[in-house]
Write a structure and sequence with these properties.
There is one protein chain. This protein is α/β, with parallel strands linked by helices. The chain is built from ten helices and twelve strands. The strands form two sheets. The chain has an eight-stranded mixed beta sheet, with helices on both faces. A four-stranded mixed beta sheet has the order 5-4-7-8. A hairpin with a 3-residue loop joins strand 7 and strand 8. It is globular and about 50 Å long. The relative contact order is 0.17. Bound molecules: 3-methylbut-3-enyl trihydrogen diphosphate (IPE). The site of 3-methylbut-3-enyl trihydrogen diphosphate has 21 residues, from helix 1, helix 3, helix 4, strand 7 and helix 7.
Amino acid sequence: MEENAITSVSKLIILKLGGSVVTVKGRLFTPEKEAIVRLAEEIAQSDVNSLIIVHGGGSFGHPVAKQYEINSGYRDSSQLIGFSKTHQAMVTLNRLVINSLIDQNIPAVGIQPSSCIITKSGRIQVMEERPLTRLLRMGFVPVLYGDAVFDSDKGFAILSGDQLISTLAIRLNADRIVIGADVDGICTADPKIDPSAKLINHISLSELKKLQPKIEKAKVTDVTGGMLGKIMELIPAIEQKIPVVIVNAAKPNNICKALNDEKVVGTIINKGEDVAKPN
Ligand code: IPE
């Protein structure tokens, strides 16, 4: 096969592990160690044979990125150390995730988005995907993350794990996207503040677009847009008929079930008919 051809790997699943699941959000540089180990076990138990994992920043990447205003782009040289610290925080978290996967005998290999992606005004412009597709074809599990990246307009920017999964899913023609969040899925209201909020099991793209203004905004430090931003980033992939399932990864077995395409509590989003119904 031609070296730079866009390669589609059969039945590829892209899994996002939210920063709020793998870290203790609000407690600086604190990993959620038990969850990281359990999620690695669930991934090992699943039947998936082609997988890319992307994890978020949580209390590792977001607070430092915010402190140095990395997402606003380069303003002066005092931010350079902030870029380094943001990237290094993500490398540290990535190492923890990868170690847990390797402990489960999963051949995980980290890929630094800052080394293979350049954004333009925050949107992915250049992506060298050949090492990634090679890893996949050989049976490795590439593990990427939201990162501080170089930007052709702004100097640098923050690339969210959500923009990354959407782009990877489209470019590699993924079968499905699985989002491991800290909530059960998309609800009719914010479940963290409104007890009458009901989970939406299944929603079409057009219904999702209508719901957008209502979707909660994150309450803690999130330089990449909270829940609303996350869902919006998925729209291009859903437009390409790649279904997305959102599950609560803080609850045991959900990720294993979602990876296996088994029935699981959560929200399925696809480009289908209007079928949204609360429970
Ligand atoms: C953010 O990635 C990465 C950095 C701040 C460096 P995400 O936006 O995907 O992280 P979470 O899942 O919201 O924590």
